[in-house]
Amino acid sequence: MQTIHTLATTTQQIVLQAPETQAEIFEYVFDDTLLALSFVVNIALAGLTILFIVAMGRGVTDPRANLILVATMLISVVSISSYTGLASGLTISFIEMPAGHPRAGEEVLTMWGRYLTWTFSTPFILIVLGLIAGSNLTKIMTTCAFTIAMCVTGLAAALTTSSLVMRWWWFVISSLFFLVIVYIIMVDWTAEAEKTGTADLFNTLKILTVVGWFGYPILWGLGVEGIAVLDVAITSWGYSVLDIITKYIVTGLVVLYVAKEPESITAGLDYGSTRKAVATTSDD
């Protein structure tokens, strides 16, 4: 009996042992090829997307069209930076799951850097969608504020180890913020896009975005942070595929449309001016 008890204790210690230094986490990531590729592929796609936007936007002259292109570029700028942080082990940690969790007592990989990606990139996605729909600044800023709150509370859910109930409560709060954003996109902006004349493009973008975004909380719930049905690598790839759809594919569609400078997008050279031109009179 003593031998069995000793063996069980040793096994538990091995399970609980996890990389601690950044170098160890880096090695851990690249020892798992599937996990590493979920980061590297997105770094490459983000870089290619930036080059694509630069190439397609060279002939665009309208300030409003340029604003949309810059916002789309910033989505990939944030992504390439964030995924580099994940691949390097900088924004990854091992945390111990609380009592009641399927992997309670174990230290599991938490990719908290993904929440940084979403916090800084999703506002730019919403700015693009809002501008294409022809919405006003108030609604655009409202969605940006709620998406930041959604991502920060999602991060809190992932990092809370004091109580399983509190982890899920943070998740519920984050989901409620998400539903506010969905309402604005599906109801308010859909109606505005009809009036603006961008309904065809906007409807495609909203489906890709909203359906894709619903996948994130589902993956959270099924992944190691939730009920742990999916392992870390599969969860990471799930998030990466959703990022590819809601960021790079959406960006491609937007850029191809905006680069043609249709009337529904353009706003004239005075758009966004901080001061109007002053008319002068001559004494002649």
From TrEMBL:
Membrane topology type: Multi-pass membrane protein
InterPro entries tied to this protein: Arc/bac/fun_rhodopsins (IPR001425)
Localization per record: Membrane
Keywords: Chromophore, Membrane, Photoreceptor protein, Receptor, Retinal protein, Sensory transduction, Transmembrane, Transmembrane helix
Keyword Transmembrane found: yes
BP-aspect Gene Ontology terms: phototransduction
MF terms (GO), sorted A to Z: photoreceptor activity
SMART domains for this protein: Bac_rhodopsin
CDD domains: 7tm_Halorhodopsin (cd15243)
tRNA processing among keywords: no
Ranges that cross the membrane: 34-55, 67-95, 115-133, 140-162, 168-186, 207-230, 236-259
GO-annotated cellular components: membrane
Family: Belongs to the archaeal/bacterial/fungal opsin family.
Protein name: Bacteriorhodopsin
